Amino acid sequence: MTMRRKMISVNNLTGANAFCYTRVSTEEQAQGGVSLETQKENIINFAARSGINILGWYEDAGISGKTVKDRPALMQLISDCMDGKKRVDCVIVNTTDRLARKLGPFFSEADKVFEALGIRTLSASEPNDDTNLIRNINLVFAEAENERKAAIVSNNMATAVRSGWWVASPPLGYKIEKVFTGEKLRGRARSRSQLVPDSANNISDNIAYLFSRFAEGGITVAELANEAKKLGIKTRRGKDLDGKSLTMLLKNPVYAGHLIGDGKRIQVLEKGEDIKLRGQSIIDYDLFNQVQAMLNAGKRNPYQPSPDELYPLKGSLRCYECGHYMTASAPTNGSGKSSPRYHCKCKGHKSINVAEAHAFFTDCLHDITPKARTLTLYKEIIRKKLLKYATNAKVELDKARKLEQQISDERTKILNMLVKGDISPAEKDILLADNKKRQEAALLSRIQCEKALEQNQQSIEQIFSIIANPAELWNNADANGKRKIQQTIFPDGFCINTESKKCGTDKISPLYSVISNKKEHNGSNSSNMVCPIRFERTTFSSAS
Fold it and tell me: What is the pLDDT of residues 210-220, one digit of tens each?
């Protein structure tokens, strides 16, 4: 990697060299979102206005923006930036969410490379500033919008599931049967899926036999697995049923025509929620309950928290001594009780009790939380910036609306020319095709201006509620929520000095690093916010 150089200013881009990146997901293609061609056209226009030289194009078609590493074109762009064969000053995208729809992956996988190389990321359709503050806010909006869409999909899925429809791949022994509901979706007849027994190779009958045989008694799960092998029952991956996979099969209420929320795997249902599925079941519910009673006989405390719930810092917590990510386990102490701990794989390096680690991390989140007066000042600065951008967006919106009307009037003139005989039908088609293309571009421009105006006070408050309450949010979040907060604030992870009892990190999210550098009302350079301590010995850069 080349040495870091000073980034170009957004106020003087003339002569800068750029790589350009476009992306559209499969879902966005299906919903008629911003096409790759439109993105490219907007980037070309932006580069021309700014005097930027385009050195290369990179395109990911039909790929989600949730992660960076799963996008080959973006990974190639990053690699080409790192090899230094071409001097690249900036990376241009149509909108910020083309780079990433999640803060954590962007800051940890892409931005740290661009920052180290002195490369600025620019949006062709959104405001740009030298602090990247607006970009970071746009990323927050993109992630919030992505989560909103995911919530809609989840709600729709939950509605379908609660109506008894099947929304996943069929379990072993079942096949999918499509049922037309009489509804229409985007002009097409809508169908739903239900489960019916799969009679191929007698698979459904053989599974029914396994339930019946176990209910008779006098046989262990291991012995029943041998019976399954003799019957030729194999998993979807073509493997024989072992004791673990057979136990999971026997515990699955789907074989009795029911779906029961377990609070973990089936997330669209509440824990214990029981749904009667449409279609046909392989066994009856009484037989299923009889098998469950036999499986649970003599067992105590069947529920055990998952590793994600026990060790939420796993994947973020690094060893203070070597910088490697720590793993977790619960070894037995001298009194015979388990002692959950985070520990390094390197021999001799210190471990830390899980409860202590969580307490230190919560204290760290309290430390980085800005005080109310700092947050108020910072919020006012952002509000003024967005007000300036909103004023410019209104001007651009008026221009876009006038252009749309002008193009619409041109279409009317073309049709009148055809009626008068001034042009031929072939000429009319050519003119209308060009008119339609310009109309689509004008429509997109108007939508983008309207989107900029939607960044209102409510959105600002939502962002600052996150910045102002990280400890409370982390403590109240589930395992996935905790991990998301950790990765967002500490994209490169953090470590705990077991001697000083302090958290430390090499990098903190720009949402906090920027706010920590703001002056107080009295003009002092001291910050109201305590940043995580940088340890004298830091090894993150060399650790894998």
Answer: 999 998 888 88
